[in-house]
């Protein structure tokens, strides 16, 4: 219930840090780490000559995230306050860690539980080789693999990382949703687990079937298939592209280099806003490519 009442979060976090296993102590450690790093960088920027960031790092070197938000604060201190700088830095460290980790766990579990799907994915990966001969292929090539994309989507569909509704406020004038009128300022939400396991939308939603997401299959199954793991619209997860990049890179690498074998036939999970697996164990050994 804590996740439903955000106004109580400051009090809950202060109390939870004294409860072993609550996770609050780890959050405090990360906040202190980020604060120390940000203060160190701020001091370094203050002591350096007032030249542009591009001149300091050289035009051929990329600008890191801390410099980006520090520069934004220096240019517009009223709108980008020290609080904003800290929270953006903290968000850059923690955002996507639980969601991506949970999603990757789901992908590996469903693949090891579905030998047919695992074999199809490995065949696609091994047949994809870029011009430089890299194996596994580069991200540029991997993101074009249809079955890999289908495996990721099906895993996100069967095990969304978030377990509570994505709340939205009804705009001025109200809105009609599924024949029901909601006045303005009403709070409405849709649970992704409810949406993804709707048999009116998905055929046999409890079966791991990546093929349903392939372009040719989507035409035959209709356009009613939705994917709602981390929200939709203008308030969806802003880090979704990085999360997708990480999965597209890591999954082929894992399946190319290792043999994964599940040690349990089911994956138990707990919903603490994030639906985290708590009994996922696997045997891992190197694959031979000779």
Automatic annotation (TrEMBL):
Domain of life: Eukaryota
GO molecular function terms listed in the Swiss-Prot or TrEMBL record: heme binding; iron ion binding; monooxygenase activity; oxidoreductase activity, acting on paired donors, with incorporation or reduction of molecular oxygen
PANTHER family: CYTOCHROME P450 (PTHR24305), P450, PUTATIVE (EUROFUNG)-RELATED (PTHR24305:SF188)
Ranges in a coiled coil: none
UniProt: heme binding residues: 237
Biased composition (Basic and acidic residues): 44-63
Region (Disordered): 40-63
Name of the protein in its database record: Cytochrome P450
Pfam families noted in UniProt: p450
Alphabetical UniProt keywords: Heme, Iron, Metal-binding
Cofactor(s) listed in the protein's UniProt record: heme
InterPro entries registered for this protein in UniProt: Cyt_P450, Cyt_P450_E_grp-I, Cyt_P450_sf, Cytochrome_P450_monoxygenase
């Amino acid at each position: 219930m804590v996740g439903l009442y955000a106004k109580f979060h400051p009090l809950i976090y202060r109390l939870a840090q004294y409860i072993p296993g609550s996770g609050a102590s780890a959050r405090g450690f990360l906040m202190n780490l980020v604060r120390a790093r940000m203060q160190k960088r701020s001091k370094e920027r203050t002591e350096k000559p007032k030249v542009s960031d591009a001149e300091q790092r050289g035009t051929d070197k990329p600008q890191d995230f801390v410099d980006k938000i520090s520069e934004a604060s220096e240019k517009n201190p009223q709108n980008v306050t020290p609080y904003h700088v800290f929270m953006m830095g903290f968000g850059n460290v923690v955002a996507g860690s639980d969601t991506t980790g949970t999603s990757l766990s789901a992908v590996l579990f469903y693949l090891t539980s579905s030998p047919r799907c695992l074999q199809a994915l490995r065949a696609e990966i091994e047949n994809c080789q870029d011009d430089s001969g890299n194996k596994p292929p580069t991200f540029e090539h991997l993101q074009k693999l249809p079955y890999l994309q289908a495996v990721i989507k099906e895993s996100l569909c069967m095990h969304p990382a978030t377990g509570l509704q994505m709340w939205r406020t009804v705009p001025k004038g109200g809105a009609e949703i599924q024949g029901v009128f909601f006045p303005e300022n009403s709070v409405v939400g849709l649970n992704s687990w409810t949406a993804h396991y709707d048999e009116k939308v998905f055929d046999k939603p409890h079966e791991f079937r990546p093929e349903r997401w392939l372009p040719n299959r989507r035409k035959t199954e209709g356009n009613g298939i939705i994917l709602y793991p981390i929200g939709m619209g203008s308030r969806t997860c802003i880090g979704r592209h990085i999360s997708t990049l990480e999965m597209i890179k890591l999954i082929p690498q894992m399946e190319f280099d290792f043999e994964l074998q599940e040690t349990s036939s089911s994956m138990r999970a707990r919903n603490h806003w994030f639906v985290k697996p708590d009994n996922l164990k696997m045997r891992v050994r190197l694959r031979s490519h000779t």
